[in-house]
Amino acid sequence: MKIGLLFAGQGAQYSGMGKSLYDNSKEAKKIFDLAGPDIQEWCFEGSKELLRQTNITQPCVYTVTMAAYEAFLEELSKLDEDLLNRLEMEGMAGFSLGEYSALTAGGAIQSFETGLAIVRHRGTWMNDAGKNAQGENKGGMIAAFGERKRILEYVEAARENGVLEGVNFNSPAQTVVAGDKDALQRFLLKSKELGGIKTVPLSVGTAFHCSMMAAAVPKLQEILLASDLKRPTARIYSNVTGKDIMENYGLNMSGSLQN
Questions:
Q1: Domain region containing 172
Q2: Does 134 reside within a domain?
Q3: Considering the entire predicted model, what is its pTM?
Q4: Are residue 61 and residue 155 in the same domain, yes or no?
Q5: Which band of pLDDT confidence, cut at 50, 70 and 90, is reported for residue 248?
Q6: Catalytic residue from among 15, 203, 209, 238
Q7: Is 96 in the active site?
Q8: I need a surface site. Which of 38, 109, 130, 168 has the fewest CB within 10 A?
Q9: pLDDT per residue over 122-153, tens digit each?
Q10: Catalytic annotation, pick one of 96, 101, 121, 191
């Protein structure tokens, strides 16, 4: 039986997340203990508004997803050996931030502590990039449901001089739009005026996956290059291409060049 794992990203957070894992899984508790008391408090007791702050959301979601992964492995170890031998890990992926969990579970990031350090920095830099000079969030994200061509036409019509981009192409019928607040408001009005699509604002702190995040890119590149990433031990599928990340470099899992 082939199985795959998909790790959640920002927007999946909620107050109390991970508490049942902490209380019921020895391995999950180890992850929370490594994460420290601040992340435990944020996850278990944090308000909705607190958990929407990018510098808090990212380490919290990463911690919970890795705790869930360790609890999953803990439960697998209890299975009958014959059943366990019939399970085959086909691969893993993560949605946005969840890709860091996939990279950790797949062995590219060598430890939870290393991954958490990266994600803490990532959350801080992206939080800063998404704020104006007064420290207020500049943008947001909207999930739009309908024909992709129509959604992107509305994006073009609503952008004007602002930032507004189609950024996550989750399915032929769902596209996530990110941009500054004024442009997003114009997009909502255009959607109501012309019809044909449904819109749902996302519970995120600012406008991810768009040009607004450009200031965070060189800092993140620097820390990733310094983090001694390894060749993954499992197939990890890229957010960008949808392919095994090793295939992007013309390599197979053994590291040999493919023909």
A1: 139-207
A2: no
A3: 0.88
A4: no
A5: low
A6: 209
A7: yes
A8: 38
A9: 999 999 999 988 888 899 999 999 999 999 99
A10: 96
